[in-house]
């Protein structure tokens, strides 16, 4: 008798149980790692139990001013943490490889905190960075890792999977906000998590994918979207549901990098988002590797190396052309 496909029981596949009070029991997660000499945790909102894990490179050249990368981890909005081992280790490597200060944001998870809670936490992290740059936190004291060692005019916002979705939605929310002296020069959406009621071609073709089977992604959306809406809600399907106001705002996004893999069921939606932004006049760079699967860079060193090289080249190109006048 053949084993059932991975999509046969999405709760079992995701190792979660939905409790009667609407919360989740998460049965198996990645181990959480404490900060190291290269990282430290800064409280963001103690009421919401959110924080920022700051990563710095080793061997920083003296007198250097490093760029900043605000990072949002993946997990379908319901799983994982900035302290989860794969994301902690990835940010440590990126800080070294990119010679960048990384701010990895611990945001609230659904279904205990449905969207837009994660977006609100992400915006709060961006505003925290702005206030650090302005010296308006804790009586004017800027964090010592940021005070003298970063260039606030070279800021990038990056996310993977659900974190890539957060990047898009944060940009919509801060495009009209005065962030000076912080300048967001670029957005980086890595394998961004978007959805819709009608399956895309790649979702249909890869419906029994071992990482993102279609019933599991449908369950993720049902657990994280606001009560009473479907997958065509603007949070998950901006292509179908964006109104005139959202379309006008996305036209003012800074340069955007969209990265994806041919073996990811979500890849067609990532392509469609790239096309949507290009149609609004955004400078969009895309890298779609024929090989690879969802989150492959967390487990495949060669894929991670290629991603870091792509991100590094994008950051350098943005820095050479200057920041968007709107962000």
Molecular structure report:
One of its GO terms (molecular function) is hydrolase activity. InterPro entries: AB_hydrolase_3 (IPR013094), Carboxylest/Gibb_receptor (IPR050466), Lipase_GDXG_HIS_AS (IPR002168). Belongs to the 'GDXG' lipolytic enzyme family. Keywords: Hydrolase. The chain has 11 helices and 10 strands. It has helices at residues 10-14, 85-98, 117-134, 144-147, 162-174, 201-205, 214-224, 238-241, 244-250, 267-279, 301-321; strands spanning 16-18, 24-26, 39-45, 50-55, 66-72, 101-106, 150-160, 184-190, 255-261, 284-289. The chain has an 8-stranded mixed β-sheet with strand order 3-4-6-5-7-8-9-10, sandwiched between helices. Strands 1-2 form a two-stranded antiparallel ribbon. The chain starts with 9 loop residues before the first helix and ends in a 6-residue tail after the last helix.
* Percent of residues in β-strands: 15-25%
Overall geometry:
globular
| Strand order of the biggest β-sheet | 3-4-6-5-7-8-9-10
What's the helix count?
11
Mean pLDDT: 94
Q: Major β-sheet, in short?
A: 8 strands, mixed
Instruction: State the end-to-end distance.
Output: 57 Å
- Total beta strand runs: 10
Structural class by secondary-structure content:
alpha/beta
Unreliable stretches covering 5 or more consecutive residues: none
Rg (C-alpha, Å): 19 Å
H and E string:
HEEEEEHEHHEHEHHHHEHEH
Q: Helical residue percent? A: 25-40%
List the helices and strands and how they pair.
Layout: H1 10-14, E1 16-18, E2 24-26, E3 39-45, E4 50-55, E5 66-72, H2 85-98, E6 101-106, H3 117-134, H4 144-147, E7 150-160, H5 162-174, E8 184-190, H6 201-205, H7 214-224, H8 238-241, H9 244-250, E9 255-261, H10 267-279, E10 284-289, H11 301-321
Parallel strand pairs: 5-6, 5-7, 7-8, 8-9, 9-10
Antiparallel strand pairs: 1-2, 3-4, 4-6
Helix pairs in contact: 2-11, 3-5
Keywords: Hydrolase
Domain Alpha/beta hydrolase fold-3: 69-296
GO molecular function, one term: hydrolase activity
């Amino acid at each position: 008798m053949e084993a059932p496909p991975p999509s046969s029981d999405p709760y079992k596949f995701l190792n979660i149980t939905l409790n009667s009070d609407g919360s989740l029991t998460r049965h198996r997660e990645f181990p959480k790692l404490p900060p190291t000499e290269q990282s430290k945790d800064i409280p963001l909102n103690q009421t919401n139990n959110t924080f920022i894990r700051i990563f710095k490179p080793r061997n920083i050249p003296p007198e250097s001013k490093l760029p900043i990368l605000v990072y949002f981890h993946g997990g379908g909005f319901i799983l994982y943490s900035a302290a989860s081992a794969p994301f902690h280790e990835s940010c440590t490597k990126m800080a070294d490889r990119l010679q960048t200060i990384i701010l990895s944001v611990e945001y609230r998870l659904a279904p205990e905190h449905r969207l837009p809670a994660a977006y609100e936490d992400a915006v709060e992290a961006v505003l925290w960075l702005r206030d650090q740059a302005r010296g308006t936190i804790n009586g004017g004291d800027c964090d010592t890792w940021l005070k003298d060692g970063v260039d606030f005019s070279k800021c990038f916002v990056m996310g993977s999977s659900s974190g890539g979705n957060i990047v898009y939605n944060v940009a919509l929310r801060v495009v009209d906000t005065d962030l000076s002296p912080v300048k967001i020069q670029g957005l980086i959406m890595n394998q961004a998590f978007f959805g819709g009621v009608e399956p895309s071609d790649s979702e249909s073709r890869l419906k029994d994918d071992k990482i993102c089977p279609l019933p599991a992604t449908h369950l993720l959306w049902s657990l994280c979207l606001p009560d009473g809406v479907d997958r065509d809600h603007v949070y998950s399907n901006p292509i179908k549901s964006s109104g005139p106001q959202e379309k006008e705002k996305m036209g003012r996004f800074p340069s955007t990098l969209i990265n994806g893999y041919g073996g990811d069921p979500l890849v067609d939606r990532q392509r469609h988002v790239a096309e949507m932004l290009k149609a609004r006049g955004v400078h969009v760079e895309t890298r779609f590797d024929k090989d690879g699967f969802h989150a492959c860079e967390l487990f495949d060193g060669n894929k991670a190396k290629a991603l870091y090289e792509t991100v590094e080249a994008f950051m350098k190109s943005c820095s050479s052309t200057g920041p968007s006048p709107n962000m």
